[in-house]
Structure formats: C-alpha cells, structure tokens
From TrEMBL:
Residues 107-157 form the RNA polymerase sigma factor 70 region 4 type domain. The keyword Phosphoprotein does not apply. This is Sigma-70 family RNA polymerase sigma factor. One of its GO terms (molecular function) is sigma factor activity. GO terms for biological process: DNA-templated transcription initiation. Keywords: Sigma factor, Transcription, Transcription regulation. It comes from Kribbella sp. HUAS MG21. Belongs to the sigma-70 factor family. ECF subfamily.
C-alpha cells in the first residue's frame, strides 16, 4: 500500500469522522463509514483524484446517506443511545473540538432525526462543514439549486426547533388570510390596507408564464394584480411559514411566499419553477 496515501488519509480521518458523526449521530456507525471510505480509497486510482479532501468528503457523505436510508427500513435507535459529544481522545484537534461544542449536542441530534436523509446530509455538509452545493448535489442526486433548497428547508426546521424566532407565525397567518379574503372578494381597499405602500411583487419565469409582470412595485399595482383573482388559492405553510398555493388537479402550479413587516405585506414572491415546486415543503392550513 502507498505510504503517502495512508498518510494523507490519516490526515483527513478526524474530519471525516466528525462529518460522519454529525450526519449519523452514532459513533460506531461513524467509524464504520470512515472505514468504508478508506476501503473505497484503497481500491481507487488515487492518481486520478485531484482534490483528495473533497473526494473523501463526497465518498463519506454518500456512504452516510446510504446508511441513513437503510436505517429508515428498520426501527430507529433511541436518541438516548447516541453520545451527545465525541470523546476528547477521538477529536484531538482544537478546531474540531470547537465545532463539536457549537454544533453537536443531544438537542441537535434530536432535531436531525426528524429530517429526511437528504435534508440531514445537505444541512450538515453545507452549514457545519461549508461544503459547496455543487459538491453536495451529486451526492443526493439533485441539482445545486435543489440542494440549496433542501438545505434551506432543513435549516429552517432546525432553527425553528432549537432557536427562538423573530417572525410571528400567528401574525403572518392573520395577514395572509386577510390578503386572501380581500383578493377573493375583489376588495381593493381591503388589499391596500394589508399591503405596505412600497410592497414588491416578484415572479419567477414559471409563475410569470401564467400572466402578470415579473416585477411589480407599489400597493396600488399589486392590489390590482390580485383583486378578484385568488379564488383558487389555498392557505398553506410554505417551508414552515404561512403562504398560499394555487393548485390544479391536486398539483401546485404557483406558490405565494410572503414577507410581512409591521403587520403588512412588504413582499410577495411567486414561484412556479418546476424544480422549486418539486422540492418546496407545503403543508395545508385551516383559514
């Protein structure tokens, strides 16, 4: 075996173990993933690997993803069996210890257990280890844009569970519900009351294809755009925040995301791009 290759792998071992542990939440499984990574490296032509660190991260990520998916097919281990932190002897590097203290704990592991395998991997690799979405995308079989969306959704779920939020979800629901009612009733003055005077409406190419301007500013113009035109819209949670969706034959066509500031709608984003619609998290709400 090439001594140089062994040395380079050992230089990356602690980082790979940290990545695997944060994805899997289990020290024994993390060790198994790292060992499998070494086996795959030893069987590969190292001369064709330009960036060994990136290659190893990609491989250990794929192995962890496979392990997470396999885990879904059998009963989950109770979270209490997961160690809340790696032993000091296992992570001797001070930088890794700092990351461990900030990002790995029982509370985070509990939240990560609620994510899908792709969400968990995308969040850990990008947010905790700064792996670019261009490298994450092929691991989960998505485009970089879709990988970014998946990580964003996971991040909102993690933060929503572990951190207080500055956004009042109840108040946003009230504002969006009032907007929907005024739009359905063609209540122009009601729309003006709920819209910020400088509200901005943005539509991607998929949404703009159904009519309307890609960008529109000002309460009067936005109110005119929606007055009497939202009969088919439904109230939903859009990636965890109150919004609207226009459905056809049970499939979403346009998603309405709202930015609410001081009790008024400051921005509306209409999204109809097929890739976005495939990955957005929509949960029906009662009005």
């Amino acid at each position: 075996m090439d001594d140089w290759l062994v040395l380079r792998f050992e230089e990356n071992r602690d980082r790979l173990r940290a990545v695997a542990y944060r994805i899997l939440g289990s020290e024994p499984e993390a060790e198994d993933a790292v060992q499998e990574t070494w086996i795959r490296l030893s069987r590969s032509d190292s001369a064709t690997i330009d960036n060994l660190g990136g290659w190893l991260t990609t491989v250990v990520g794929r192995i962890c993803l496979d392990m997470l998916r396999a885990r879904r097919g059998r009963p989950e281990h109770p979270v209490g069996e997961h160690s809340p932190a790696l032993a000091d002897a296992v992570v001797p590097d001070p930088e890794l210890e700092a990351v461990q203290a900030d990002t790995v704990g029982l509370a985070l592991l509990v939240v990560l257990e609620t994510l899908s395998p792709a969400e968990r991997l995308a969040f850990v690799l990008h947010d905790l280890f700064a792996v670019p979405f261009e490298e994450i995308a092929p691991i989960i079989g998505k485009s970089p844009a879709a990988a970014r969306q998946i990580a964003s959704r996971a991040r909102r779920r993690v933060r929503g569970t572990t951190e207080p939020t500055d956004v009042d979800v109840v108040r946003q629901k009230e504002v969006v519900t009032a907007f929907l009612a005024a739009a359905r009733e063609a209540n122009f003055s009601g729309l003006l009351a709920v819209l910020d005077p400088e509200v901005v409406l943005r539509a991607d190419a998929g949404a703009a294809a159904y009519g309307g301007s890609p960008v529109l500013a000002g309460a009067a113009g936005v109110a005119q755009q929606f007055s009497g035109r939202a009969a088919a819209a439904k109230l939903v949670l859009v990636d965890g925040m109150p919004g609207l969706v226009w459905m056809r034959r049970g499939e979403p066509l346009i998603v309405f995301s709202f930015t609410v500031v001081d009790g008024r709608v400051a921005a509306i984003d209409l999204r109809g791009d097929a890739e976005y619609l495939e990955n957005v998290d929509l949960v029906p709400m009662k009005g």
